[in-house]
Every structure is written in structure tokens, then in C-alpha cells.
Amino acid sequence: MSATTPDAGATTPDRPGIDPRGPRFSAAITSVLLLAVVVLAVGGLDTAALVLLALLAALFAWGAIAGVARHPFGLLFRTLVRPRLAPPGELEDPRPPTFAQLVGLVVTGTGVVLGLLGIGIAVPIAAGAAFFAAFLNAAFAYCLGCQLYLLLVRARVIRTA
């Protein structure tokens, strides 16, 4: 998805774009951590799985509230990875990946709440669903949350300025 997608809004000087490789880098780290939640939960380490999923939900909240440019994994990408890469061909509108963080928060947050309520199977299910979405982004540059954002913009549920 590029910053020039009409429904996503163009990148302007007052709304700078982000390197599209940053969210993919973040999704790769997130995928590994979500897979660890599933493995922990299936291995019987329910408390560890719940704690890790809660940490990931907090990171999704950070990205949804502060934006992907201020997310810890985004800062890690800009500090350690991006200086070693060629400049990106184009920049991306940060709103769709930020919305995707909100979707991740809803999925993982639901798993955490249900896990705390004693529905232990919700933890690996929520982690598995979030893993699927994060892995698609990391491996194939296909962001489900971004696509949902664009669909909601086209349906005029979300308004862009």
C-alpha cells in the first residue's frame, strides 16, 4: 500500500510518510512473539502466555495511540536497520498501519480479558489470529488491518481530512 492511494490520503509536508519497511520489520518481531505465546499456551505455561500476550497488547496500544512512528519497534527500525538500507522508493501514509495496531489491540486485548476471566483457550486463539495477520505483513507485505482501514474509508465509516 502506498502513500499515494487516493483513499488513504496523500503524504504531505504536514503529514510525513513512513518507510513501509518499518511496519514489516515490526510485524516480523511481533510474529515471533505471538508464536511464542501460542507455544507457551499449548505447552501448559498459561500464565507466561497470558503475561506475554498482555505485553503485546500494551505494545499494540502504544502503536494505536502514539502512532507507528513512535512505536518501540519502529524506533528500533529507524535507529538500527534503516541507516543500513537504501532510501525507500516511496513513503507510506501512517494512518492505515496505525489503525492496524488498533485492530491488533482489539484481538490481543480480547484474548487477555478472556484469559483473565478463566477462558484459557482464548489466549492461544487470539495469539494465533494476531500471528496470522502479523505473519502476512512480515512475509508478504499484506497488512490485513491496513486493508480493513481502506475498506472502512471507502465505506465512509472512517473519514479522512
From TrEMBL:
<dbReference type="InterPro" id="IPR025508">
    <property type="entry name" value="DUF4395"/>
</dbReference>
<keyword id="KW-0812">Transmembrane</keyword>
<protein>
    <submittedName>
        <fullName>DUF4395 family protein</fullName>
    </submittedName>
</protein>
<feature type="domain" description="DUF4395">
    <location>
        <begin position="18"/>
        <end position="154"/>
    </location>
</feature>
<feature type="transmembrane region" description="Helical">
    <location>
        <begin position="25"/>
        <end position="43"/>
    </location>
</feature>
<feature type="region of interest" description="Disordered">
    <location>
        <begin position="1"/>
        <end position="22"/>
    </location>
</feature>
<keyword id="KW-1133">Transmembrane helix</keyword>
<feature type="compositionally biased region" description="Low complexity">
    <location>
        <begin position="1"/>
        <end position="15"/>
    </location>
</feature>
<feature type="transmembrane region" description="Helical">
    <location>
        <begin position="129"/>
        <end position="152"/>
    </location>
</feature>
<feature type="transmembrane region" description="Helical">
    <location>
        <begin position="102"/>
        <end position="123"/>
    </location>
</feature>
<keyword id="KW-0472">Membrane</keyword>
<feature type="transmembrane region" description="Helical">
    <location>
        <begin position="49"/>
        <end position="69"/>
    </location>
</feature>
<dbReference type="Pfam" id="PF14340">
    <property type="entry name" value="DUF4395"/>
</dbReference>
